[in-house]
Amino acid sequence: MKQADKHQTDKSRSRFLRFTEGWLFNVINYTMFGLFTLLCVFPFYYLFINTISNNELVARGAISLYPIGINFSNYIALKEVNDLVSSFVVTITRTIFGTALMVVASAFAGYLVTKKNLWRRQLWYRFIVITMYFNAGLIPWYMNMLMLGLTNNYLAYIIPGIVAPFNIILVKTYIESIPAELEESAYIDGASNFTIFRKIIWPLSMPILATIAIFGAVGNWNSFQDSLILMKGAPHLFTLQHRLYIYLVKASDLEAVMAGGAGNTAVLENSLNSKVVKYTIAMATMIPILLVYPFMQRYFVKGIMLGAVKG
């Protein structure tokens, strides 16, 4: 009887320890990730509340945790900066077309290098990979773009980014994980390689294609160097990040432009200052790309091929 009681006590104690350890782990885990999330989100939150608060308080550094004197006149005043609109158009179109072409090219190339009957398949694949390790440098790159006629040319934003070796490798690796039985059954039914790619490979590869699409969209949206170096003679082709750099350098001049164009609106009443101008433009350049991820998130689905091959 005593042995049974002792066994029951040990069992209860063991169950209690497991519960305590699990509870403690969850508390520590959620606390750490909560703090990490807060550290990531707070800079964006701080920037945003300073753009919608009273500008005089922002200039004095009085805004820290919550907005005071909420108004959106700073964002409305941005329309007075004419070249900012053109930069938005350039960056948005570049992001859309550049990302779309990159995804299609990466999908095609990634699928082709998985075909064992492709002539010199290993050579082509290694040729793609080797470009990731060797870079001629900035000056040879500029000279190459100059000889190709891609300076002061909108196509300089699109063409060089179509072939992305790292993304091709990602797509190739993902396609190789797709059961070969799917393609074999399609071949038996008389489907061509293009039909298989369009109707089988492309739909099943949506998670990895969405991933590289986000990589490409963020890269195109944040691109700065190519605009700075290649578009010196074409200010109308400056990207948004390039404009942001110019505005941050000349924030005091932009302050006068925005205030002068706003007339007797609330912008002028709130006394625009260079700090507010910097905050507002920086926030305006971030908002569009921050809105992309929620729409792409649904493609990050695990087990998309579950049940595709019947046993």
Please write out the topology.
Layout: H1 2-51, H2 55-59, H3 73-77, H4 82-112, H5 121-130, H6 138-147, H7 165-176, H8 180-188, H9 193-204, H10 206-221, H11 225-230, H12 240-249, H13 251-262, H14 266-269, H15 274-290, H16 292-296
Domains, number: 2
**What portion of the residues fall into strands of 2 or more residues?**
under 5%
Overall strand count: 0
CATH A-level architecture of the largest domain? Orthogonal Bundle
Give the overall silhouette.
flat
Largest sheet: none
Q: Radius of gyration in whole Å, from Cα? A: 27 Å
How would you describe the overall organization of this protein?
This protein is mostly helical and 311 residues long. The protein folds into two domains: 2-51; 73-299, Orthogonal Bundle (MetI-like fold). It has 16 helices and no strands. The protein has helices spanning 2-51, 55-59, 73-77, 82-112, 121-130, 138-147, 165-176, 180-188, 193-204, 206-221, 225-230, 240-249, 251-262, 266-269, 274-290, 292-296. Helix 12 (240-249) packs across helix 13 (251-262). The longest helix has 50 residues, at 2-51. The radius of gyration is 27 Å and the shape is flat.
